[in-house]
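Quick one - first record:
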Amino acid sequence: MNKKFSTLLVSMLLAGGLFSANAQTQVWPNRVAGNGFYHVLKVHGSDATVPYLSSFSVSLENGALVQEQDLDEVSKSNAWTVTEVKVNGAVIGYEFTNANGSKLQFDANGDYTAKASDAVYSVFKFDGPILKAVDGAGSYISGKFLTQTGNGYALGRGTNTLMYTLPIYSQNAGELNQYLEDGFAITIGKTKVDKDHDKADLQWDGAYEDLDGNVFAGKLSATSSANGVILKNEAGKTIVLTSDKWGNLNNDLQTGAKTGYKFAAMTDAQITAARADGKILDTEFVFTQPNEFTTEPLEVKTAGGYELMVAAVDGNYYLTTGDAADRENDDTQLVGTASFTNNGVWGVNAPSENTYVKFGLDNLADYSVFNDAVWNITQTEYDANGKVVETLVAGPSCDPQFAWVPAEQVALAYPEGQWLWNGSAFVNRESGRYQTLNGLRVIEGEELTFSKGNFTYTFVKVGEPSTNYTDGYLSKYTNDDLLQKAFRIATPVKATGDTVYLAKDEDGALFLSDDIVEAVAFRLERNIFSNNAGNKHSQEVRHYTTYASDKTTSGFADDILNMSQYIVTEATTGDALAYDSRAQKFILSDQNGWYPLTFKNKAEGLYNIVENLNTSDDNKDGDVNKYQGELFDAFCNAYKLYGAHNTAELKQADRAYAYVANDLFILEEVGAEQHVSNIEGDTVKIFREADHNYFLFENEGFLDLKNFLDPAYKNAALYVDSAAGKNTWRQEYLLAVGVHEHKDGMMCPFNPLHNDQTWRDEHNNGKPCADAVKVKDFKTGRYLVNLVDSAKAQTEAGVKDAQNKFMFQNYVTSEPYYRLGFVPATHVEDSLIIASTNDTIIVSNNSFGQAKVCDFAFHYVDADRTSFIIETAYDYEEWIDDLTEEVKYEARKGYIKYHNGIPVVTPKVEEAEVFTLEQTSEDPTDNETIATSEVKVLAGNGNVTIAGAAGKKVVISNILGQVVANTVISSDNATIAAPAGVVVVAVEGEAAVKAIVK
């Protein structure tokens, strides 16, 4: 039974008042038990001659037996089936169960009970008009019969009960045609009979495999007529009843008033001719079902009363007619669908088989075979001669005119070419498009190829549903992979076999080039969603398709596609790949940092790039840990990219599933050729490309950039310490001065300052501290960092920008340039531990996160690979993923700029200073250890240590000239407390020097 049809039918049946009590016929349980039909039980006064004046039907509602006063109202509550109760093979009585599945039963007190364990009385039979309870031997139980009690019922005395069948229901053309969307079908078969072959069970016993004269096979359509409906078959011919009879049938059918005739399918012209010859008996049909809750078996007859039936002669079966009027008084109320005598006994010598008619094609496909599987679907069309016209596959497009397309246009190995059965239609796994394909018929000898009209449909199983399916979308790279990789985007030119790359010209415009050297290096970053509460969470986008499943209690489950959207940016500038609607092409935009793209496989290594996916941040079922962002319309309303080779531009196609040339793209991983990846030796000098006399160096704790002839210039050697990105697209480095390598691997975990070799030499005879622990070899020194943290701390403390020593002027309002400084730190394995705060920065990943405040990459800006800009982090934001509870970072890329004589960090790549470098054998000393003759001054954490000045007066003042210490020291190694910042140390007899105290 078609689910859609049956739902509609039941809703009509229950709409109230469809069945009139006056049209019902009284029956007895022994005549209708087990036939599955429904009846009403009516309790009334003793005057049976006027039963409808004082009758109530027995209704079981909300767990209580009540009197239904409106006898025109038939519902599941007061419609009852009858089943036999047997003991030792003999029928002792009957049980009554309503359409809700609740049984008529009473407890020991004679009151209705819903619990089977409490039921004492549940078997009944009629004693005249009285429905009485019986015992296990079938004997009436004294005083226990159905009676009225107020507005309900119990077992008592004094009430008559009668049972009536519900009237048959005629179907109109509109109702019939909803069975198969625009038509319907019937199957003609047999009913089962008991072992003695004397009574029909009214149960389906299979369709006739070879039925002569069956013009009702296949799909039919109905149109309304004056007395019923007119039927046409799939060929457009009208079904009629002719005056021709089957000549080989026996005399009973040959001589009956309305028996033994043949049906035929005729064109309009043939009907006109046959009617003129008196050969047409009827062209109108009536379809009725047994009662309101049962659609089978159907009675099919003509408006003139000729009933469809099957006759058997010498083992052959013939579709013919019987006379329905002959059984109008049959108290079994079989509505003419089986051949019985009036007393309900099987007619052994009757001329017909037991005929059962029901909705459905006789060779209709069992759609349950499609449950729990993913399918490719192929459609083949045939002409009238059986030759193939065209073979197409089911396509994902939501445009109906592209429902079936050539196979080369669909990626059958991926979700866009795959389908799931949802119980009523096939649903595309990716787009969500529906293919109903109702009425598929089995082809003999074929397992998964079915017919429908002039078409066949072949199904190929290509997988099973999944709760986390990622194949078909760019998914092989983890987040950490993406942090360490860059990609070229290319498109193959099918006509020439060439590959062209997305490149950037001198003006920054994108174009397609066949020169790989010109290709842009792109980074891919998974898109991050923020919900309405402002909480951020993971990046996957999930699409759900509900499919029919035998493996769940509900019968349905979700197939979940898991894909990612990516922000695609140029690796060097951070500009996003975005669509310019005015220019109608893709550009690199510094204004559009949020333009997510999805890479969808069309073949191995080939992608469609799809934009504007319709996404929602709502979480299915409210389970944020399971579902993270739902795709509503999937790809149907999305656009995709294609390479317009005639203009050498990257363009936008109207729809993701439109067939467009040059819409395939390749992602190629970029090697390390974009960045300085191998520095010979570990010590370098870095100078301005514009003037090689200007070097980067450490000056009183800050990074400085001066001419080597400047008196402030000191040692320009910088130690290069590998940090992250080795053998990836971007090598990153730590830069430091005063570095000591500790091969003994003994580290002081509680006071990082004690790891410094100078402290060991001066305070512990060169040895590690007493609480040192064994680790791998490590390095200590003063490491270069972006001082953004210190700058923000000063701002939060109320220091104005002009007095904030860790920033230098603003490039726009509230957007400062941050200074860089050298801070004592320890580099061990993947960690850089800042001595002053004991904070640990992970430097192993190639990210733009927190680690970038101390990591530096040298990005080439010339073809000769000699000049570069220095990349680092300008700023970063720390946030907690509300799904994983992990601490994550979002960073803004930064570059070293030479600004008004000071090196700073800017977020604007166009302001970046161009540098070059050379190896040097000079020792990268710590310029904060100042030698004044034999006196040494070392700035520490909250103090200044002065060596070689025993007996001399020392004055320490801040940058404003305020004296903070004035004393005569008595030791050759004296430590004096001093405030953080720049201080001036004046030692008696020596030149005053500056030092930066942390």
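second record:
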Amino acid sequence: MNIEQTFKDFSNNLTVLNEESIESRFGTITKRLNKDFYNIDSNTENGIYIGSYGRNTAISGISDLDLLFVLPDDFYSKYNNRAGNKQSQLLQDVKNSLSKTYSQSKVRGDGQVVVIEFKNDYIEVCPAFLENDGSFTYPDSNDGGKWKKTDPKPEAEEIINYNDDCNGNLINMCRFMRAWKNKTGVKIGGLLIDSLVYNFFLYNSEYREYTFENYHILIRDFFKYLKDLDDDRSYWYAPGSNQHVYKNNSNFKSKAKKAFKNVEEAIEKNENNSVYEIWRRVFGKAFPYPQAIKESSYSYTASEEYIEDRYPMNISYKLRIDCQVTQAGFRTELLRAVKFLRKNKELVFFITDTDVPAPYVVLWKVKNEGEVARRKNCLRGQIIDSNRGTDKRKENSNFEGAHFVECYIIKNGFCVARDRIDVPISIY
């Protein structure tokens, strides 16, 4: 594998492509709110990009865009002097304003923001008041209502400026980690990703001058950094603002440990054509895979389906699956506790842990790999439903080879959680 060119292509594949659409929606939203709250005709004033797009760390296929709209100062007193949940009332007024423009879309309040839902993505609009120090006060309608502060401008400025000091590596790594999050189902917020990557370069200056030809080492060492972080640490400081960014029961350490092993294997097998499949275990479809090499692989089938092609990705919850292994006359075992499977076992894949609130839909993907699967024309790889009336999937270990099963949770039209388990079936 040509490391330099491959990682250049990977970086290009992650570039946001729908900037024109984003700019158009930004202008439409800002114009509506300016008309209703300022009585002016402007599609730019008082609107600010925040979140990953504002920090320039978003990737292609971004499903959630965060906008902040600065309200007139006197509106703070207007709402704060009201009885009841004044924050909820403010969000309701912003919702009513946006509903005039987006009458065919679902517009709803969601605690701290107003959400406009589209077919393949959504926009979160945060109404806020500008403070003298440049920070913002915004409404939180949860638990009776309160005001909170945020400071996104210095965060974006610090990320973008420090990226120049890091030879462009900071933003590239932030984007790579979003691809990893979406592929492997890492429950981690975007600001935490950016904060962890920032700290990595801040305290490991030797990586700042790395170029694409060293990216395999850079990525390996970053995953090592993640997996070795203190288990007891609950928050980090955001770049620029020094706000606390909480881990919030994230599973990033366990996922990073697995990614580290995969990257080590990829580095070891760099001259082997299978290296592309290993990298794709970590980063998914966005990682380049030459078509000729892909079609020569024992795991390739043109009929394979990818969840990214069916649903927009918004990984925001955790998911853990396992498999019950049974055979007549033998004790039942769990797959994660078994190193190898024998043939002719009954397999029942099921969810062991998730924090996705019901209701939701569970989908599966069963992929057989290797020479035997190809010879039997049984590579599979389609997205399939759970067994009727359950969130489980029953299968059988019919022939040897390296196989895997992925599970996806779909909620409100988005893939919000995913996990994978390997199914190594031995002839012995």
